[in-house]
């Protein structure tokens, strides 16, 4: 399974929904980077993604985007292959 990294904050409802969706698809571990605890990581996230909002989800080297992007990818049938569980 490809590793999953999610830029997040401690109180983000969309981050929680993204985590629930990923776990429901069998992801055992999500590396969460809490940008509200480490402001330097916010800059890193904005540089990597060009976006300011959380969550920002990476699966392997692929930037999926936020919760809406993740959910759309799942509905289109693209999430499981990206996770390596085709």
User: What is the ordering of alpha helices and beta strands?
Assistant: EHEHEEHH
* Whole-number count of domains: 1
- Rg computed from alpha carbons, rounded to a whole number of angstroms: 12 Å
- The CA-CA distance between the termini, in Å, is 10 Å
Approximate strand percentage: 15-25%
How does this model look, in words?
The protein is 43% helix and 21% strand. By secondary structure, it is an alpha+beta fold. The chain has a single domain (4-83), classed as 3-Layer(aba) Sandwich (Glutaredoxin). A four-stranded mixed beta sheet has the order 2-1-3-4, with helices on both faces. It is globular. Belongs to the glutaredoxin family. This is Glutaredoxin. Keywords: Cytoplasm, Disulfide bond, Electron transport, Redox-active center, Transport. Has a glutathione-disulfide oxidoreductase activity in the presence of NADPH and glutathione reductase. Reduces low molecular weight disulfides and proteins. InterPro entries: GLR_AS, Glutaredoxin, Glutaredoxin_subgr, GRX_bact, Thioredoxin-like_sf.
């Amino acid at each position: 399974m490809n590793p999953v990294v999610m830029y997040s904050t401690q109180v983000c409802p969309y981050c929680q929904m993204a985590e629930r969706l990923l776990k429901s698809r069998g992801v055992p571990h999500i590396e969460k980077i809490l940008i509200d605890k480490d402001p330097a990581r916010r800059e890193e996230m904005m540089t990597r993604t060009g976006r300011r909002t959380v969550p920002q989800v990476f699966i392997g080297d692929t930037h999926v985007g936020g919760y809406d992007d993740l959910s759309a990818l799942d509905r289109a049938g693209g999430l499981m292959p990206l996770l390596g569980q085709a």
